[in-house]
Design a protein that fits this description.
The protein is of the alpha+beta class and 496 residues long. Helices cover 34% and strands 26% of the residues.
């Protein structure tokens, strides 16, 4: 037996056949509007206040979201990219025969164009009184049940177009996202940074500790990696004489999926010659503050029940002290992974026996420190084994000049270094990383020999910054899942 959806689809196919038989093209190639629905509503307001004497009919177009047939007349709700407006089809029986037949075959979801005068009904609703209308696209699939409150997460993410149709607040989230990206670009452009593009396909996976996606280039007969970071190519440009560069680009990491992680995400990385991580700290907190003011009109946002304030200056916490404060463990008392692992198990933690000391410290941070950081905060000065690309702190080679920014109880916003520019030290760091991760599948580290060669030509002192754009948008829009701020997140394919 055919399902209800199948029956509705069949009925719409029959309507489509009738429309074509009546001589109407249900998918015309173009339709020119004079106004968006928002502009039509604004025009009505100007007429009512006397600030406009425009009397010509408006031509608007959009999707039918509701139809209410009421005797001789009918009302419909029309939505386009700017908003919605009511339509009034008055004295339907007086329509020409072809128009009457077409009207009877209209469904919720159809896209139409209408021409008519703008007025306000007795109930105060801005309305276009339709003089003429055209079918622009026949919808063959019905909107999902309770489309006006579509909440099925799988449907929302898998068929984002339905989510955008059904949930207007979703569209607002992505409008905020694009405003954030535009504001970040303005901030950096105004400070003399040059936006550049670097390769997505790279011969070696470098710039971060992550498992890469691998593909094969047939013409070159060589395996390539989808980039896991933007860093190494951008620093080549610093070597080449560009003093301030940035890139907003997609990053690919073949790792787990969670509320904070998506295999494909958007990263901002910037590099400034003759700067260190203190300069980058000041720049980043000012950038987020200005972006919040431009996009949201305020430096204060609500996230997960807390009010976050991005006004500088932000707190700066020493990493070692923060770990000791929240976990009770001073990792400097445990010189190797085995000793630290034993101490962590004493606190009740389940610890992976394969993790090295750096990743054990990272686990202490994510378990004990991050959940306690609500306001935007810099976590500073990391152990050298956690940061192979960062410059050592003067007088203490156990630590490097690196910070991460957290907010909202564990959302990582940024990662930054005073960049290591000593080629001999960088080569040694890479070799140590290779030894520690030899034979592991989850995270691969390869030595980018061309990058080392570039350093041998000399890279000036440099401050580098990496920002997770998706997570910044999460905070700005009060979304607890990264999938809510990515238009098309990765999902496991359904079995047909």
């Amino acid at each position: 037996m055919a399902s209800r959806i199948d029956r509705i689809t069949q009925q719409r196919m029959e309507k489509l056949a009738r429309i074509r038989a009546g001589g109407t093209d249900p998918y015309p190639r173009v339709y020119h509007r004079t106004h968006t629905t928002r502009q039509a509503v604004e025009l009505l307001g100007k007429k009512e206040t006397g600030s406009s004497s425009e009397e010509m009919p408006v031509i608007v177009a959009g999707r039918i979201m509701a139809i209410r047939r009421m005797g001789k007349s009918a009302f419909a709700d029309l939505r386009d990219g700017s908003g919605k407006i009511q339509l009034l089809f008055q004295d339907i029986k007086n329509f020409e025969k072809s128009q009457l037949a077409l009207f009877k075959d209209l469904d919720i979801g159809d896209i139409i164009g209408v021409e008519g005068d703008v007025l306000r009904t007795k109930s105060g609703e801005p309305t276009v009184r339709v003089n003429d209308f055209h079918l622009l696209a026949k919808s063959l699939q019905p909107l999902p049940e309770k489309w006006h409150g579509l909440s099925d997460v799988d449907v929302r993410y898998r068929q984002r177009y339905l989510d955008l149709i059904a949930n207007t607040e979703v569209k607002e989230t992505f409008l905020v996202r694009q405003k954030v990206i535009a504001a970040v670009r303005r901030f950096l452009d105004e400070r003399g940074f040059l936006e550049v593009e670097t390769p997505v396909l790279q011969p070696s996976a470098g710039g971060a500790l992550a498992r890469p996606f691998i593909t094969h280039h047939h013409a070159l007969d060589h395996d390539f990696y989808l980039r896991i970071a933007l860093e190494l190519h951008l620093k080549r440009l610093i070597v080449g004489g560009f003093d301030k560069v940035y890139e907003l680009g997609r990053i690919f990491r073949n790792e787990g999926v969670s509320t904070k992680h998506n295999p494909e995400f958007t990263m901002l990385e910037s590099y400034e010659a003759y700067a260190d991580y203190n300069d980058v700290m000041r720049m980043f907190e000012e950038m987020v503050y200005q972006v919040s003011q431009q996009v949201l009109g305020s430096s204060r946002v609500e996230f997960a029940g807390n009010i976050l304030d991005f006004e500088p200056p932000w707190p700066r916490l020493d990493l070692r002290r923060a770990v000791k404060q929240y976990s009770g463990i001073d990792f400097e008392q445990y010189a190797n992974a085995d000793a630290l692992r034993t101490r962590m198990r004493e606190t009740g933690m389940e610890v992976d026996p394969q993790k090295d000391r750096g990743r054990l410290i990272d686990e202490l941070i994510s378990t004990y420190v991050e959940p306690n950081i609500i306001q935007p905060t810099f976590l500073m000065d990391y152990p050298v084994e956690m940061s192979p690309l960062a410059k050592a702190k003067p007088g203490d080679s156990r630590y490097v000049e690196r910070f991460e920014v957290f907010a909202g109880g564990g959302i990582e916003l940024a990662n930054a270094f005073t960049e290591l520019n000593d080629p001999a030290e960088q080569r040694l760091r890479f070799q140590e990383q290779m030894k520690e991760r030899r034979g592991e599948d989850e995270e691969q580290w390869t030595i980018d020999r061309d990058y080392l060669l570039a350093l041998e030509y000399g890279m000036p002192p440099t401050g580098g910054l990496g920002v997770g754009i998706d997570r910044l948008v999460m905070l700005f829009t009060n979304k607890q899942s990264i999938r809510e701020v990515i238009l098309f997140p990765q999902l496991k394919e359904k079995n047909e």
